[in-house]
Each structure stands twice: as structure tokens, then as C-alpha cells.
Amino acid sequence: MTHVVLESCIRCKYTDCVDVCPVDCFREGPNFLTIDPDECIDCAVCIPECPVAAIVPEEDVPGDQQHMTPLNADLAKIWPSITKRKPALPDADEWKDRTGKLPELKR
Questions:
Q1: Of 8, 17, 60, 72, which residue is least crowded by CB atoms under 10 Å?
Q2: What is the DSSP letter of 103?
Q3: DSSP one-letter code for 88
Q4: Is the pLDDT assigned to residue 1 strictly greater than 90?
Q5: d(Cα 75, Cα 16) in Å, to the nearest integer?
């Protein structure tokens, strides 16, 4: 079992979750964070830290977000680890409530 970052993180990239992760399982892309499923220990401390509710247990990924599970795993293999909180993207507040953000993902 692991946790999955959903589309709601795209173009926001709040990093509050990174500070509380005991195993440094987050990976950072240009405008999105992902969770490495091989590192995540399913502790769930990151879930309440996310201001856009973008982190869920794998078993609770909504039907319209199922594509995010393999995407997290794939991107975690190529993106670098992030272990310290950074400022959110400059326009994060403008994007935080939008849906259908997958086309905005930068690899």
C-alpha cells in the first residue's frame, strides 16, 4: 500500500507534505510532486498537511484519478527527491480549486 498524489497538486506544488514525511518519499517535478511507492510507508502524516487534499491512500483514489497511481510510480523513478519545504508555485492559489489539470503537467 502507498499514497498517491492526485491531479489537484498540478500547478500548485505546495510542499507542506514534504516536511512531515519520515522517509523522504516525495519526488519533485517542475509543477507537481509525486510519491515514490517503493519508499512510502503508508504512515499518512502527509494527508492532512496538503492544503488541496491532493494526497490519498491508493485504495481511496477516485475513479476519475486512477491514472495517477501509475503516473506517480513512473515519475518517481526519474524525478529527484525533495526533503525540505519550498514556496508553492507563484500562481498556486489561482490553480488550487481547478479540476482537469493533467494537461498542465510538466515532465
A1: 60
A2: G
A3: P
A4: no
A5: 20
pLDDT, one tens digit per residue, over 7-51 is 999 999 999 999 999 999 999 999 999 999 999 999 999 999 999
CB 100 within 8 A of CB 34: no
> What pTM value is reported for the model?
0.95
Among positive and negative, which fits the CA dihedral 71, 75, 81, 83? negative
Determine phi and psi for 5, rounding to 5 degrees. Answer: -95, 125
Q: Which amino acid is it at 37?
A: P
Helix and strand element counts for the chain (H, E): 3, 4
Task: Give the CATH number, domain containing residue 65.
Answer: 3.30.70.20
Tell me the C-alpha distance between 72 and 90, whole Å: 23
Point out which residues pair with 3 in neighbouring strands: 57
